[in-house]
Amino acid sequence: MPETAVASVRRRIRAAVLQVLYETDAVRHDYERALEDRLDALGLAEPDNAFARDVVHGVLANRDEIDKMIAKYASAWPVAQMALVDRNVLRIAIFEMMIGGDTPPKVAINEAVELAKRFGSDKAPGFVNGVLGSVMAEREEPPA
Predict the structure, then answer these.
(1) 3-140: which CATH number, 1.10.8.80, 1.10.940.10, 3.40.605.10, 1.10.3720.10?
(2) What is the C-alpha separation between 29 and 40, in angstroms, rounded?
(3) pLDDT for 63-87, tens place per residue?
């Protein structure tokens, strides 16, 4: 599959993951059922479904750690009071950058900004880019 086709599929998967996390956050629906519903609607191959499951499970399993990073770099905005879209876009990108390990940080940031443009407010892309840029800068700093 050409690289652009893979990127397009991954972007659709991230949008579905965002919808699952949003639904879980907003109305406390069971994330497994919400995820399977989204995956059924997408009709993707199993490796793509596995990527979606990995991201959802990874974000939820590491939510406290991820939220601490968000709080550190978005200190003016308590995580619990952030817009649901912004919070979950950041969670996905930070998981992919810092924990998941398969996505290059610049790709994770670009994808997060695109999600914020599509689903967030007018200011969401800049906010997401700023927070993730700070996370990436720390990630690239050599240990003291």
Answers:
(1) 1.10.940.10
(2) 17
(3) 999 999 999 999 888 998 999 999 9
